[in-house]
Amino acid sequence: MYQVKTYNAIVQAGFDRFTDQYQINQTDDADAYLIRSVNLHEQELPQNLKVIVRAGAGFNNVPIDRATANGTAVFTTPGSNANAVKELMVAMLIAASRNLFAAADYAAHNSGADISKRTEHDKTKFNGQELLGKTLAVIGVGHVGSLVANAASQLGMKVVAYDPYLSSDAAWRISTDIHRAKTLATALKKADYVTIHVPKNEETTGMIGAKAFAAMKDGVTVFNFARGGIVNNTEMLKALDSGHAKGYYTDFGSDEILNRKDVIITPHIGGSTGEAETNGAVQGAETIMDYLETGNVQNSVNLPNLQAPFGTPYRITVMHQNIPNMVGQIATILANANINIENMSNAAKDKVAYTIIDVKHLQKQDANIIDQLNAIQAVYRARLIKK
After folding, report:
1. Residues of CATH 3.30.70.260 domain(s) within the chain?
2. Could you list the active site residues?
3. pTM of the full structure
4. Could you tell me which of 127, 137, 183, 141 has the C-alpha nearest to residue 157?
5. How do 193-196 and 135-139 pair as beta strands?
6. pLDDT tens figures, 38-50
């Protein structure tokens, strides 16, 4: 029986996906966490915790290094809220181009006997522009960015895409009509609108800063529905105050950008739809079950993708440091116990490696094999899975 602990509100569809081998919120000493936005940085991770799944694309609320040291695999559910974020982004793009927020605010405060006359006189203050023929720079064309790029292209916009993480042509999900820029500066150069859809990490924090703004033309409008901190707010305000930028639309508020007419902030609602929450919960439950029952890995933050058919009665998985002779040490322990390896797979991601070993036969005296593997200094966690 596996134990799962949840944080935040996880929709029932996610719970319904678990089989009767799983108990939900029966203990804090869980095998798995299924979370959304709870901050785990100040919390102790149980030694028994094998997997954390964040129902969503971001993972800055999870202490990755501590999870790795604990032998805990961390997963996200990429793509589960992609359509929701795309639809909000397209809505904001249209709203920005037509000055809808300012116009709606004016209309809400316009009263008196001569409303119609004053409206006809004042409406030119809110003249906008059509998106047709305008240029949109999409920075990051993963699950969300590719949808935004394709939707903007369908609206008749000229779309320039740049992604520092996608090199293979097969990884680009964008229409062939969309231009692929080789550098960030090239993507930004002619853009009327810039939208950001990259993950937040050390490389992308502050990515849209002084250098990026210098590459943009006057009158640009910037959108950030990815993560707070990717756009440098100080530089954003400088661009707005100088008139270099026309407006900033973001899902991530902070004190320095509050109470400005040229900044529109939504309260982190990009993925807040019933459909997105259902998708994330279901995908999260399936990820937990797949990892606990097969050891296979896909969409992990701290482990490499590694999947192998589970065709033997037993499977041993080892999460370990990516250093020389680890596979040799693991194989030697099995050989000394006279355990034959039917299949072995290994992959690495940065400083962490992961090994899957399938065996047909284990004897009672082999019960301490997992303890021996866990005793290797560079092993984070070894597990035995019975089919």
Report:
1. 304-387
2. 227, 256, 268
3. 0.82
4. 137
5. parallel
6. 999 999 999 999 9
